[in-house]
# Entry
Amino acid sequence: MPRTIVKARNLRKEFEISQTFMQKVRRQPKMKVRAVDGINFDIYEKRAMAFVGESGCGKTTVGKLVMKLLDATSGELYVKGKNITKLSDHRKLKTYRRMAQMIYQDPFSSLDPRFKVFDILEEPLLIHGIGDTIAERRAMIEKALEDVRLTPPDEFIDRYPHMLSGGQRQRVAIARCLILNPDFIVADEPVSMLDVSVRAELLNLMKDLVDSQDLTYLYITHDISTTRFFTDYIGVMYLGIIVEQGPVADVLDNPLHPYTQALLSAVPEPEPDRLDRIKEIPIKGEIPSGTNVPDGCRFHPRCPHSKEICKKKVPVEKEPAEKGHVAACHFAGEIEFKLKVAKLSEDGKVEKVEELTVDELAEE
Amino acid sequence: MSERTILDVKDLTTHYFTSKGVVKALDDASFQLKGGQSIGVAGESGCGKSTMAFSLLRMVQPPGRIVSGSIKVDGMEVTGLSEKEARSKLRWQKISMVFQGAMDIMTPVYTVGYQMREPLKYHKGLKGDKAKEICMRYLDMVDLDPELYYRYPHELSGGQKQRIIIATALLLEPDVVILDEPTTALDVVVEARIMNDLKRLKKELDNGMIFITHDLSILAEISDNLAIMYAGWIVEFGPATKIYKEPKHPYTQKLIAAIPRLRKDIDRLEYIPGAPPELTNPPSGCRFHPRCEQAFDKCTEVEPEEHVVEGVRVKCHLYEED
Ligand SMILES: Nc1ncnc2c1ncn2[C@@H]1O[C@H](COP(=O)(O)OP(=O)(O)OP(=O)(O)O)[C@@H](O)[C@H]1O
Ligand SMILES: Nc1ncnc2c1ncn2[C@@H]1O[C@H](COP(=O)(O)OP(=O)(O)O)[C@@H](O)[C@H]1O
Ligand code: SF4
Ligand code: SF4
Ligand SMILES: [Mg+2]
Ligand SMILES: [Mg+2]
# Structure
């Protein structure tokens, strides 16, 4: 078993919502968003773990907690065995930041347009006092550019961000992380603004870095189809909790939680013979706000399988199938995943409904 | 599905005349669209997808203009229309468009109803209860509660707003609806529901749809025909089923192989090294040649012609019959 790099136990983060004038006058209690509401996960050395889920479910908050850009409300977070929730000393934080780095979604705003690539990559070195001479730093910068395959480095080192394509900018952002030789990278939607081909190229690159640079990733995305290729584990988040997690292929091929099943039914796939078929998305209504978390199973108002017990009792994690593959649902393991597709008639009416299993889907 | 040709585009060419030179954003685009059918347009950023859409609407922004070619909408030639005619005869009524990022620009101070009624008033002189009734019918059609008519944009979710924009684009029963990245900013669940609506509406209303996105997985859900664009050219055009199963153009082959799969284990994703060219000075011969693995001598010198192979149009020398 590889070493655990990140370990979260009952991790929680609440945000207070600013009140309106009338709420203050009426002395209403302050509202709280439970952005991350008691989660547990482990990320192993040289593995990538994905967090997926709808927007607002808490993915980015998890990433920021791990980066110590936010302080947890309660719970524990261990990185390489150290409890970082207690970390507040400025110097220790700085050392921590060197070990853990973050890549952001938007390659257009994450780089300062006034700085050349050289300056962008030199900045973290200066902050952390790495490299005594400019020549030494230049050598490190060139190496980092080579690591992200911006070659020859000379061609890129004096460019400003506007002289780079979106994919090249994102490589510079990755190089800026790598230059500090981190153990661990949080990548928040790193490829979602990029074209397919550039996305594929970057995902290949990020995957190669696992071995060449001994990297571990926490990968945040709403694009579930990229997780199978890039990651080893996946956690599916809903309203601040992880409803299902496990090895990526197990979760995608045998989703146990009704929410995961709904998400997976919704993912579009490049299969063109589904033109006159409508997929049933087995989920009701829209995601409730984080200020108003339903009792019992928090997914119950939207769940097509909800029973009485679901309204009252919070489900605990079960492991009914593969080892390490868990889901927080009273009926985990009892609800088979099938995709219902309805055929449309010539004038757009639903004609007949058929059910496809995961195996049938994979064959198509 | 009717067999009526509602859109007939021939050799459409649109350039931007900038101080740095002529940007050849769209060259010699030709295709036809029939009622109840859809064309999916795909290609990397900057390959001319939006320029093609704006040309069809006669809304190309200066310094750009349509240089040559013809666009017939339901038999009417539109390249020669004046701006006034385009506004009164073409836009909304014949062709409407859901713009990239449109849901972010709904005016916050007006109700949904107010914003939906505008085109009805301008084009049909419809007001009051009659207009309200039509708006509510279209809200229902996109699976929304008709009562949303009375609400303000800030009270709605992104998915609801996007559906309202789509309903508004359908109001005047245009022959063609163009959708530019309509679901890109939305979550998969909402996206899947909107795609379901669009599939149903396409059949129900029997209009034509042009669906633009860089997401080939989404396009597979909705396209009868597929147009793959590269550097201002349509490099492959034909039935989507054929192109996804057996892409012919080297560019399309790579694009499709670059899609990560949900239910297949893949070791490495394919990609196309390099970047698309600047369109002020596109490469000689085949514009794809600097990035093409299959390029040969002729590709650097001679512009490829379109060849029809098994019902698919391919602009590539590999399919030349000697
Ligand atoms: N107003 C303009 N002036 C000059 N060049 C322009 C203008 N608008 C677009 N272009 C150029 O025309 C080409 C095609 O642009 P277009 O916006 O049609 O691409 P697209 O395929 O829609 O890209 P995206 O996927 O990024 O939306 C690009 O090279 C672009 O830089
Ligand atoms: N700084 C903040 N102040 C108040 N609420 C916040 C803040 N950051 C995030 N939230 C709320 O926390 C929840 C989770 O947000 P986030 O982690 O950004 O989700 P995701 O990354 O999955 O889209 C949302 O309800 C969001 O509105
Ligand atoms: S516990 Fe009940 S409501 Fe929750 S996901 Fe399982 S079946 Fe649905
Ligand atoms: S014409 Fe030549 S360069 Fe162009 S796509 Fe075909 S083989 Fe490649
Ligand atoms: Mg565009
Ligand atoms: Mg998407």
Notes: The pocket of iron/sulfur cluster (ligand 4) is lined by residues B 249-250, 286, 288-289, 292, 294-295, 299, 304, 316-318 (CB under 6 Å).
